[in-house]
Design the sequence.
């Protein structure tokens, strides 16, 4: 239905401020401009960004009028007409402080900041509740993919027992390029940075911290129990070599950086690490910067959510969805409807108390009895072997590749400590978990 010029003039304008005009902030402004004329029909009001906070307000920026830019937070927090604050600056401070101040001033907040939520989610959500405000953060996990709201709303009737997936676009892009095109690690990382997928400091991506933060947020919501970044066991992709990728392919598998969270009878498991996964598994088909999240619930069974996990407009898509939701709540006078959903207090297990399969690649002396020696170490540590492959390499040494059955991580690590001290073992080249 067309909205008449008269009605348009009478319509309320919901004003918002944007904190940050980088990759995500500029995408949000662009997307809002694109949808601006539809807002009256979509939500029954006009929606407008009236201020944009940046560090350097004098710098020339494309896409938004120069007069919107400011470097003064005071101008925004003291502007009573601004109802929504969209935080896309990143980092902990001053973002934490600005969000708390905004909520205390009765302004609703939308953020994409997983670093902040994974560490201070409780404080922020409690402050939002206290002031009857919305605090929405769909873009903080897996970019454009709707996962926070589905967990809080559509899947609320389930007991979720597992949530896992590929939640970092940069590392998925790098591993895809290394596997499919034989691209060098450094070149693939440079390209991911150029495309705007990587964080300002890509350490957080390649070392798995970014995925760890996202997994902490998802696990908290899925299991209704607070999980923070410090609870997550994390390994990145920097040690993955072309040789590991070759072996994975020989075994009919591919290597992905996976975040895996399980809600077991004796506690929550939260781990981020590279894993070998069958090429037939749907996650193996998730390539480039795409992300995907798998959820298992008692009623739902399995569901997979897939989409773009990073980048300007994909992330803006999730932020805009939240902004529109907040605006609808303002118009219906029902903000603060769904706040913190962590009503349980479950223990988080240590990684050594969890079970997994391992892929192990090592260099050993090439002489009789070595294989028997290695397998007896595993046997004595209660590590059962599923597959062994031995190849000649480098003079007198042989490369041995072992895939274990599902074992306690503690037992596997004990076996590795013993093997490392044996003279027949030249080098433990890589240990990668296997998903089955
Ligand atoms: P970015 O490109 O580095 O942009 C950051 C923006 O924030 C810049 O405009 C910067 O101002 C401004 N800013 C930073 N600190 C500030 C401060 N103290 N005061 C005022 N302005 C400040 O970052 P981004 O990639 O857009 O990421 C923003 C947030 O979204 C982060 O939390 C990130 O984790 C999250 N996120 C990003 C993606 C993605 O694909 N990039 C996806 C999902 C979530 P100047 O321009 O003046 O320096
Ligand atoms: N650097 C992140 C990624 C951006 O590569 O997935 C989205 O959080």
Sequence:
């Amino acid at each position: 239905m067309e909205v008449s010029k008269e009605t348009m003039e009478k319509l309320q304008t919901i004003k918002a401020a944007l904190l940050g005009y980088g990759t995500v902030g500029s995408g949000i402004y662009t997307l809002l401009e694109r949808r601006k004329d539809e807002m009256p029909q979509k939500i029954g009001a006009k929606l407008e960004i009236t201020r944009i906070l940046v560090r350097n307000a004098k710098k020339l920026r494309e896409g938004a009028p120069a007069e919107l830019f400011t470097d003064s937070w005071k101008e925004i927090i003291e502007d009573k007409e601004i109802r929504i604050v969209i935080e896309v600056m990143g980092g902990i401070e001053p973002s934490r402080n600005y969000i708390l101040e905004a909520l205390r001033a009765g302004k609703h907040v939308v953020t994409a900041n997983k670093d902040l939520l994974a560490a201070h989610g409780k404080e922020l959500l409690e402050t939002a509740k206290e002031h009857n405000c919305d605090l929405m953060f769909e873009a903080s996990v897996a970019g454009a993919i709707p996962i926070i709201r589905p967990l809080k709303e559509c899947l609320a009737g389930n007991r979720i027992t597992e949530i896992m997936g590929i939640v970092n676009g940069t590392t998925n892009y790098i591993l895809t390029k290394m596997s499919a095109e034989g691209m060098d690690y450094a070149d693939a990382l440079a390209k991911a940075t150029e495309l705007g997928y990587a964080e300002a400091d890509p350490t957080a991506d390649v070392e798995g911290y970014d995925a760890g933060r996202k997994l902490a947020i998802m696990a908290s919501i899925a299991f209704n129990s607070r999980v923070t970044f410090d609870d997550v066991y994390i390994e990145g992709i920097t040690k993955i070599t072309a040789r590991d990728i070759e072996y994975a392919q020989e075994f009919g598998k591919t290597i992905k950086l996976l975040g895996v969270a399980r809600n077991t009878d004796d506690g929550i498991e939260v781990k981020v690490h590279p894993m070998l996964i069958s090429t037939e598994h749907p996650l193996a088909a998730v390539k480039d910067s795409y992300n995907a999240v798998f959820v298992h619930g008692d009623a739902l069974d399995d569901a997979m959510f897939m989409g773009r996990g990073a980048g300007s407009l994909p992330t803006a898509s999730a932020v805009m969805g939240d902004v529109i939701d907040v605006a609808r709540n303002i118009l219906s006078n029902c903000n603060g409807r769904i706040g913190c959903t962590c009503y349980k207090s479950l223990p988080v297990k240590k990684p050594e108390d969890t079970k997994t399969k391992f892929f192990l690649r090592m260099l050993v002396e090439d002489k009789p009895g070595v294989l028997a020696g290695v397998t007896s170490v595993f046997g004595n540590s209660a590590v059962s072997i599923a597959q062994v492959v031995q190849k000649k390499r480098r003079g007198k040494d042989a490369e041995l590749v072992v895939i274990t059955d599902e074992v306690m991580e503690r037992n596997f690590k004990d076996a590795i400590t013993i093997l490392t001290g044996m003279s027949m073992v030249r080098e433990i080249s890589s240990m990668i978990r296997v998903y089955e």
Notes: The longest strand covers residues 253-264. The chain has a mean pLDDT of 95.
